[in-house]
Task: structure prediction
Amino acid sequence: MEIITNVYRALPWWQRLSFWYTRLCAILLHRGQLYGTYPYQYHLDRVVGVAVRFGVTDLPFLKSCLGHDLPEDQKTPVWLLRLIGMGKQARTLIFAVTDEPGATRAERKEKTYPKIASTLRAVVLKLCDRIANVEECIGSGNWSQLAKYRAEQAHFRQMCFRLCDREARPLWAHLDKLFADNPTRVARTA
Result:
């Protein structure tokens, strides 16, 4: 509920209804999909929460946080994204972070990272998503998933980090700190 309150405070009154409409539509399009044991809305709200926490509060960006997984997970077409209130800026960001086809996760990321790096603000969106995922791994004790993100971090950073991207800098620093403060844990065997 705190995340929703922060979004309410961050947006001017005339943009709130548009945000809530898009949020409701994104939740409905993700119906039946789970994020761990939670409805997928949990993850969408966490990604929006990361953006707001780092001061990224413009409406198109917050809408892209809500729709960032729709094309990949739900095969949502462009016309439907338009219908649920995703403007051109939001759609551009959403498709920039959508994984390209590939046989393995590594292959998909290898094809997708250049697209993210070359699209203005897509790195910020991907970082919001990644931070939400890593914080959830830490909070829930999902160390194997955290290890996966840790293993990808160097390549992700190499492909997407830009020193001149001032908006992304605090997000990179936070993600690095999350990994530094939570060292690799080895599962115990009996």
About this structure: The chain has one domain: 2-180. The longest helix spans residues 122-140. The mean pLDDT is 92.
